[in-house]
C-alpha cells in the first residue's frame, strides 16, 4: 500500500466482522483487505447501476427480427462497397 496515496480514517465496524477479517488476514493486511472489499463493492454497484440504466433505456432493436434485418442490410452495403472497389466479384 502506497502511504502517499492513502488517507487514515476512523470508522465504526461490527466487532464480529472485524474478528473474522483478522482471522483470515496476515499481520498488517487488515486495511488492504477492507480497501479491496470496498473496491469490489464499488465496481459491483457501478455495474448494477449501468445494467439498470441499460434495462430502462429504449432498445435499439425491439425484436430479434429487427436486429437480423439490420445486420443483413449492413452486410449488403459492405458487399456493394467491395464490388465498387472491385474486391468482390
**Shape field:** elongated
Give the terminus-to-terminus CA distance. 61 Å
Number of domains: 2
Largest sheet: none
How many beta-strand segments? 0
Unreliable stretches (pLDDT < 50, length at least 5) are: none
SSE series: HHH
Whole-number average pLDDT? 86
Please state the structural category.
Answer: mainly alpha
Computed Rg: 26 Å
Helix content: 55-70%
Strand content: under 5%
Number of contiguous helices: 3
Q: What is the secondary structure topology, with strand pairs?
A:
Blueprint: H1 15-24, H2 30-56, H3 64-84
Fold and architecture overview:
It contains 3 helices and no strands. It folds into 2 domains: 13-57; 62-89. It starts with 14 loop residues before the first helix and ends in a 5-residue tail after the last helix. The protein has helices at residues 15-24, 30-56, 64-84. By secondary structure, the chain is mostly helical. Helices cover 65% and strands 0% of the residues. The model has no long low-confidence stretch (mean pLDDT 86).
Features:
89 residues
Quick overview of this protein structure:
With 89 residues, the protein is mainly α.
Amino acid at each position: 500500500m502506497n502511504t502517499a496515496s492513502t488517507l487514515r480514517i476512523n470508522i465504526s465496524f461490527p466487532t464480529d466482522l472485524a474478528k473474522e477479517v483478522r482471522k483470515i488476514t496476515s499481520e498488517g493486511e487488515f486495511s488492504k483487505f477492507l480497501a479491496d472489499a470496498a473496491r469490489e463493492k464499488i465496481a459491483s454497484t457501478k455495474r448494477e447501476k449501468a445494467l439498470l440504466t441499460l434495462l430502462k433505456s429504449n432498445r435499439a432493436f425491439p425484436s430479434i427480427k429487427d436486429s437480423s434485418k439490420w445486420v443483413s442490410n449492413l452486410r449488403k452495403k459492405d458487399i456493394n462497397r467491395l464490388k465498387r472497389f472491385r474486391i468482390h466479384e
